[in-house]
Amino acid sequence: MNAPLGNTSPFNERVFEPALVPRHDGKLIGTILTEDGRLSLEDADRVLRVAQENGLRFGEAAKRLNILSEDDIQFALARQFDYFRVTPGRSTLSGELIAAYDPDSAAAEGLRALRSQLMLRWFGASALHQTLAVVSADRGEGRSWTAANLAIVFSQLGERTLLIDADLRNPRQHSMFGIDNSVGLSTLLTGRRAESCIQRIPQLRDLSILPAGMLPPNPQELLSRPFFDMFLSEIRKQYDVILLDTPAAAVNADAQTIAARAGSAVLITQKDISRSTRIKRVLNDIRETGAQVVGSVISKH
Ligand SMILES: Nc1ncnc2c1ncn2[C@@H]1O[C@H](COP(=O)(O)OP(=O)(O)O)[C@@H](O)[C@H]1O
Ligand SMILES: [Mg+2]
Cα(199)–Cα(42) distance, rounded to whole angstroms? Predict the structure, then answer.
């Protein structure tokens, strides 16, 4: 491991943060600034009230009322990362979750650049553009790592984020996040339990995980059920960002099915290892379903 997440392609333009003020952050920003003496409790209450009444973000309302400056808001946002920094050795989270353990690392910076690109080019464009399958041709190319860490950096912005482990063959998200996997997507797709399968990760802000659940004998058939579509439509109302981890796309048709359901996919390739003929085939297979490949990431691990 070690090298940062590589450049994003095909979009290589300058990266910037389009929406620096998180959506569900009022209380947190208020707390940070009152603790720091930059905001009185009375003013924090006033801002919250105006934000709620007018459907504004906390920062926007505070600026409109001339209570906070841009500088104060940037200060609070920078501090938020520390609030959600996880201490190694004192958590069930795997050390692979670099975005949680070491948000200042180059790898976390690369993930935030990817997040920015996605927010700029894709999220927010339409309601359907909030469900993203993370795909790659072969095993070990970094789909699970990228899906998990990308979910963390989205949640750090205050986006209500759901990570679905749709790899029903070699699921890994439950072990990365140290959570129970006895119920999950496979359980849900067989209609036995509903949203109680989704688990919150308390150490991480705004992040929920739907683990894979018990390994089913028929993953392809389960993922093709109309119920999967219905579930995604329902769950889109509750989250800002939904990421789906997938099995290796060159090995079976699951990833294609998942990408078709999600509507969008990001392709992970591994520098100097992924083979171009296999990448092209995966791209074609996914595009054939009508799903959009919104970008690709070259991982250097
Ligand atoms: N960008 C990365 N930086 C560092 N390590 C990575 C990166 N991507 C993947 N890894 C590591 O490579 C291994 C395989 O990654 P994984 O995400 O499980 O692959 P996949 O899900 O595509 O089979 C894991 O040990 C993971 O921690
Ligand atoms: Mg995986």
Answer: 35
Supply the pTM of this predicted model: 0.79
212 CA to middle of ligand 1, Å?
18
Segment among 45-54, 118-127, 190-199, 252-261 with least mean pLDDT:
118-127
Residue nearest to atom 15 of ligand 1 (CA): 142
Query: What would the pLDDT profile of 91-113 be if each residue is shown by its tens digit?
Result: 789 999 999 988 888 999 899 88
Q: Ligand 2 centre from 133 Cα, in Å?
A: 12
DSSP state of 214: S
Beta strands in 129-221 (DSSP E): 131-135, 161-165, 199-200, 207-210
Q: Quick one: CA torsion of 208, 214, 218, 222, rounded to 10 degrees?
A: -30
Q: Token match 């679905």: residue?
A: 164
pLDDT score of 7: 40
* Residues having C-beta closer than 5 Å to ion ligand 2: 143-144, 172
